Amino acid sequence: MKRHFFSKEFSNGNTVKQLLTRSRFLLYKSPNKWSESQKERAAIVFAEYPEIKIVYSLSQKLRKIYNSSIDKAVAIKKLAHWYNDMQNLGIRSFNTIMNTIKSITRDQSQNLGGNVKIN
Hints:
- The chain is an all-alpha fold and about 120 residues long.
- It is built from 5 helices and no strands.
- The longest helix is centred in the middle third of the chain and has 18 residues.
């Protein structure tokens, strides 16, 4: 006896595979650049996969640090906080960027008097 597989369909008509495939492009953008359908898709993805929402938020936080014109000491401190937030998640695929941030903040902190703490 054959069993039929029915994929879950979300409110926007996407299946899980379609949702994830179509969402990858919106994850590279800032939320203010999303179309209406991307906003709807993001809301569904973030509700279904909370870890994606957390990582996306942290990537936006990192983008904001790099795109803002702030004092170097403030930027280094914000990078250290970002690093600690990311480290608490324990996602191994971010080890390369985390090691880079750790190295930058450690070196720059020493140049600025050593008042930034990285775990």
